[in-house]
Amino acid sequence: MKRPAVAGKLLILSALVLIAYAASYAFIQHRRVAKGPWEVTFTREADAPILVVNQIRLGIANVRFVFADAQASMDVAQTLRFAEARPVPFELPFGKCLFLDPLFLPGTVVFEMFGHEIQLLPRVLTIDRVEHPWHSDATINLTATNQPLVTR
Questions:
Q1: What does pTM read for this prediction?
Q2: I need a labelling partner for 98 at 20 to 30 A (CA). Which of 8, 39, 92, 133 fits?
């Protein structure tokens, strides 16, 4: 008589563990992707390459990096979403992606473009390893010889 009681308890315990696992997995997966990825548009205006960064859930919109003295050969604007992991470094429409960590979105993305290192982090922007606060609608002018000039 004790054997069926033990088997029933094990079956109930197994079901509870499975439900707890499924709920935990769903919660973690939701938290992992809830904020969405970085959206980066590569374009050019007046022959100057421009990088436009958006992350709407963090309140970051239309942050523009202008590389005034650089040349990029591209015909149409291209927007990339950094939501999936892939081997690094990899080529971008201009420059390279040196590091990509999309485990908990938006994650961290590091670019090397025209001699500048640009790191996108949720809490701060770093340019050439110097931290700058995020400001929506900011324009950051970068040349080969200057420090970043941020205008709002």
A1: 0.79
A2: 133
